[in-house]
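Re-run requested by the PI after the first attempt was lost when the workstation crashed. Everything re-entered from the original request form. Ligand of interest: zinc ion.
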Amino acid sequence: MAEDSSARPVFDSDPADPLTDRVKVLRGAPEGTRDVRVRFRAGGGLLGRRTVRRDQADSALLTYVGGDEYKQEEVLTLAGVDEFFAEVRARAAEEDAVEAAKNACVHLRCRYCDVRAEYLGTRTWVVGEPTMTGTALRSLSEEAVTQHVYRCPRCGLLELFAEGFLRHPVPEA
Ligand SMILES: [Zn+2]
């Protein structure tokens, strides 16, 4: 498969860059963790360890934050942290493959005009059972539903996708 030009970064900075002193994992983090930060460290400083550039480091401190704000720390060697980075990349690549397979089912060509539909962004609808309270028409059990909207530039046909399934805009096939 060709490299997707819209591929999202996996890290906020290049973990192999010798001048990098910290790296944040943007996606592909281990299951159950919401946030992982890596700091390169060496001996010295008030607490015995300090954050340094990668090319001066002898270890790495990983801070994992779980969905419930539960925090856990782990110290790895440089070889160990490179293994961790490779695992993160592999997970992110797996997510990309799943996403690409889903996108491959979606054809955003207007069924009447056979031209590519334009992405208009998101719109939010409030849905619920209408009911009369006093003189006002109110809605019970209201729920905001966000939809991604596409429109045929020729005939105006609208297509809607609920939030939470695909990444939008879906790249052109
Ligand atoms: Zn059309």
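Saved to the shared folder this time. The two ends are 12 Å apart (CA to CA).
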